[in-house]
Each structure stands twice: as structure tokens, then as C-alpha cells.
Amino acid sequence: MRKPPVVKDVVRRFMPGVHRLVVSVRQKRAREACQRYVAELFAPEDEALRSLRREMAAAGLPEIYISAEEGRLLQVLLKAVAARQVVELGTLGGYSAIWMARALPEDGRLITVEREPRRAELARRYIARAGLGDRVEVRVGEALQLLEPLKAAGPFDAVFIDADKQNYPRYLEWCGDVVRAGGLVIADNAFKGGQVVDDTVQDDEVRGIREFNRRLARDPRFTAIVVPTRDGVAIGVVN
Q1: Residue 19 pLDDT greater than 70, yes or no
Q2: Mean pLDDT of 122-137
Q3: pLDDT tens digit string along 144-168?
Q4: What is the rounded CA–CA span in Å between residue 183 and residue 171?
Q5: Of 43 and 120, the one with more pLDDT
Q6: Share of residues in the chain with pLDDT > 90 (%)
Q7: Predicted TM-score of the model (pTM)
Q8: What one-character-per-residue DSSP string does 134-170 give?
Q9: What is the CATH number of domain 47-238?
Q10: Does the pLDDT value for residue 199 go beyond 70?
Q11: Per the omega criterion (within 30 degrees of 0), is the bond before 155 cis?
């Protein structure tokens, strides 16, 4: 005897648009659940990081800092290349700096660059609170203007780029000169909220990210990939 169709079969056959929407919602919920799972299992925050996030929110700073699981990814990458000398372009409140500095040896050094003095001061305070003041130096100024002076502190084992997106290609060129062979170039927001694949979006930041991705993919100096976590993390190994 033929079984009567269940609701989901009827929806799939006669209402394909609704069915696709339901599947999409389920997939989105599953991705979010997996992100929480990874963060809770592999990247639990301590009180210093939680308190910093609360203060950044209270100060009205934009929520553009990395996620906890991305912080853990940065730690894994830095440990993998035995990083001792690291540069960060774009400090914000120091959240990513704390994650990275914790992956460095006691004699390691992270130089992080922030253009806003108020943000830099917040970062210094929380970096000291995390017990990392001896490993992290916060420099204030426009990243492009500080690149040349930074060369004197190199070569570097890794550079993490999370500053003004329109200048990502110029930062990549600088990295090619100052990161050692076998070192890493890492950049956040490689997807720019999905706008990199939307041809109708042509603002300077999106064009900068697209050009950065193209150069990183094609430049023979790098072996690279974009890891599709959150907003995309580009990772290049210097050949």
C-alpha cells in the first residue's frame, strides 16, 4: 500500500523555494553551532579577554576584532613556524595581540601598530593586565608611514594584517621584503563580508581585498590559501 506523503516531501516537491530556505536556515544554524563548539573546546577565553571585549563594546569600538577561534588559529600558525618576531598591522583594542603574544616564547616580541591613540592606550592597558607587557610593543601611527622604520626590527617570522583594507596590497609587498623564508603572511577579512564575490560592490576597501587575494594567490614568492573561517583568513607561506 502506498504511503501518504509527509509534509517535508510535499514542501520539497511543490514549494521548492520554501524548501531551499528551510535548508539554508538549518545549514546556517549548524555552522553557528560548530563555531561555538570549536570556540568552547579549543579557544576558551580567560577573564582578561572577556573583560577586554566588554570594555571595547562600552567604549563604542567597532566589533571588527577577530573571534576566539581565529585567535587560536593564529596561535597554532605562530607555533608551527616557531615564531619569535611578529608584526601586527591594526591593533584595535589589543584582543588579537594578546592571543598572538601568548604563542610566543618568553624572549619573543610582537610589534603592533594602531593609528588611534585612544585605542592604543586601551590595548597597552590590557596587554599589561595579561602579563605580556614585556613581549608586546604598541606603536601609534598610520601603518603605511611606519612600515619603513619597522624594517629595522626585521626580518620577521610572521605578519598579521588587519588594518585599512584598501592598503592590503601595499602591506603584502612590504611583507615580501621583511618576512623570512618559511615565515607567514596572515590577513583577516579576506572575504570582506562576501563582497569580494559581488561584482556590484566596487568601493576602495573591497577592491583592495580583491587585489590582495589575487596577488597572494599568483605571486611566486608565496604558497597561499584562504581559510573559510568567519570572514576568511588568508595565509601565505614565504617560499
Answers
A1: no
A2: 95
A3: 999 999 999 989 999 999 999 999 9
A4: 15
A5: 120
A6: 70
A7: 0.88
A8: TTEEEEES-HHHHHHHHGGG--EEEEEE-S-GGGHHH
A9: 3.40.50.150
A10: yes
A11: yes
Helix axes 68-80, 16-42, angle to 10 degrees: 60
Phi, psi for 225 (deg, rounded to 5)? -160, 160
pLDDT value, residue 164? 92
Which DSSP string do the residues of 62-121 spell out, in sequence order? Answer: -S-SPPHHHHHHHHHHHHHTT--EEEEE--TTSHHHHHHHTTS-TT-EEEEEES-HHHHH
- Report how far residue 52's alpha carbon sits from residue 65's, in angstroms, rounded to the nearest whole number: 11
Between CA 36 and CA 50 the distance in angstroms is: 15
**Do residues 178 and 154 touch, judged by C-beta distance below 8 A?**
yes
Q: How far is CA 111 from CA 87, 163, 239, in A?
A: 5, 14, 23
Q: For residue 191, what is its C-alpha cell?
A: 572575504
Sheet holding 109-114, edge to edge: 136-140, 109-114, 85-89, 156-161, 179-188, 233-238, 222-227
Exposed/middle/buried for 198, CB within 10 Å: 0-12, 13-18, 19+? exposed
Contact 162, 96 (CB under 8 A): yes
At 213, which helix (H) or strand (E)? helix 204-218
Question: Cell 570549536 belongs to which residue?
Answer: 38
Q: What is the DSSP string of 9-45?
A: HHHHHH-HHHHHHHHHHHHHHHHHHHHHHHHHHH---
Domain residue ranges of the chain, discontinuous segments joined by +: 7-42, 47-238
| Higher pLDDT, residue 89 or 15 | 89
Average pLDDT over residues 38-63: 89
Question: Could you tell me how many residues make up the chain?
Answer: 239
